[in-house]
Write a structure and sequence with these properties.
Blueprint: E1 7-16, E2 22-28, E3 33-41, E4 44-51, E5 61-68, E6 73-78, E7 82-84, E8 93-101, E9 106-109, E10 114-116, E11 121-130, E12 135-144, E13 153-162, E14 165-174, E15 193-200, E16 212-215, E17 218-222, E18 227-234, H1 237-251
Parallel strand pairs: 1-5, 4-6, 5-8, 6-9, 7-10, 8-11, 9-12, 10-12, 11-13
Antiparallel strand pairs: 1-2, 3-4, 12-15, 13-14, 15-18, 16-17, 17-18
């Protein structure tokens, strides 16, 4: 910790253990980022990200890195929502997610929501590197403001690459100081919960999911590769989760 904010990185390394399961030779947390291994399911290792302190606050630099080896299966969740808050240190906070999945590996990245509290300023960067044959479920949910308050400034960029080739690269900025119109009909239409789900499956190469509406403010779109993107808006976090869960069940079949 410094007067400019907290610097912390959590690291996860998953490897096939040779006995039909997944080992975690690397499981390291720092500062507000604590990692806990939880009960496994079949050949899948499960890790919970536990926030040991409030944040991210203004000036903080937090990062989570996960590497999944060939034949390993890793499920990462979080114990509670992450709340971006204003801090004593001035300036933007950053939260970086770096994920790497080898061919034959599988990562299910399913944390709880990120809440942008009034007065906060957070930049989230998520970068996923996949190799041929990798499988991915990546969920991102954002809630703009707590109950009865306006949101802070939130910018989020998500990049997914397969063998160095981009599958998805997009950025969205919301809240005070964001480009005009983010809250209007061409942006979020007044909604305060937004989310996306990226699913990568080798079998989508020959049988890609069909583009379709899930409901008025949610849609499934095939990407240029063995992947699909679900984008959704909702009035609250509960409704958003229901929509994304329904979409994931349909894509997991």
């Amino acid at each position: 910790m410094t007067t400019a904010g907290v610097r912390a990185t959590a690291r996860i390394g998953a490897r096939a253990d040779g006995r039909g399961g997944t080992a975690l030779p690397v499981l390291e947390g720092e500062g507000p980022l604590a990692l806990r291994r939880t009960r496994a399911s079949g050949d899948e290792a499960r890790v919970m990200l536990v926030g040991a302190m409030s944040g991210p606050l203004g000036g903080d630099r937090l990062a989570v890195e996960a590497e999944v080896g060939e034949g390993a299966r890793l499920h990462v969740g979080s114990a509670a929502a992450t709340i971006a808050l204003p801090g004593q240190a001035k300036g933007e906070a950053r939260y970086d997610v770096r994920l790497d999945v080898s061919g034959g590996g599988e990562l299910r990245w399913l944390p709880e929501q990120l809440i942008s509290a009034q007065g906060s300023d957070l930049y989230v960067s998520s970068r996923v590197e996949l190799r041929s044959g990798a499988r991915l479920v990546f969920r991102e949910e954002q809630v703009l403001g707590r109950v009865g308050e306006q949101p802070g400034r939130l910018t989020s960029r998500l990049t997914v690459r397969l063998d160095g080739r981009p599958l998805l690269d997009q950025e969205l900025s919301c809240g005070p100081g964001a480009p005009g119109g983010w809250d209007g009909p061409a942006g979020l239409g007044g909604h305060r919960a937004l989310g996306q789900l990226v699913v990568v499956r080798p079998e989508f190469e020959s049988e890609p999911p069909q583009a379709r509406l899930l409901e008025e403010y949610a849609a499934v779109m095939p990407l240029a590769g063995p992947a699909a993107l679900v984008s959704a808006l909702a009035p609250d976090a509960l409704r958003l989760r229901r929509v994304l869960d329904e979409a994931l069940r349909a894509l997991d079949r």
